[in-house]
Amino acid sequence: MTSNEPQQQGVVSSHQSGTQMESAVEAIGAVRVLRVSGEIDVLTAPRLHAGIEEALRAAPAEGADGVVVDLSNVTFLASAGLAVLAEYVQPANQRDRLVVVANSSATLRPMSLTGLTDLLRVCQTLEDAHAALGDDLSRRG
């Protein structure tokens, strides 16, 4: 897929708990971006995992430089979501395929408290994440 149109990954919700998470994968420049919104907990974490896996598989096939997991619109990040992110911790010399955007206390605080901000590449903005992957958005229209 070379279009910049988002591919809807789905909405996961539980009527009992009120939990809802939405995700969509899109190509922006030379990077695949998984945009996530809502709450990431034990009910929705498997969907986060599936979205990251799909984006990582698709990136090389489409010639993408890497994957950004954009958590800018996540309102709650539980331990199940942290565990999913922890699965993608790589040695420092191999952290070149996945970058996480986290810029609110709902995502940054739990990631910082658990040490994930030291183990994953975490950026404040999508533009910073693109730069971390070597994709300069400023050169794009």
UniProtKB/TrEMBL annotation:
PROSITE patterns: STAS. Residues 21-133 form the STAS domain. It holds the Pfam family STAS. Transmembrane segments: none annotated. SUPFAM superfamilies: SpoIIaa-like (SSF52091). This is Anti-sigma factor antagonist. It comes from Nocardia aurea. InterPro entries: Anti-sigma_ant (IPR003658), STAS_dom (IPR002645), STAS_dom_sf (IPR036513). Gene3D superfamilies: STAS domain. Belongs to the anti-sigma-factor antagonist family. The lineage of its organism: Bacteria, Bacillati, Actinomycetota, Actinomycetes, Mycobacteriales.
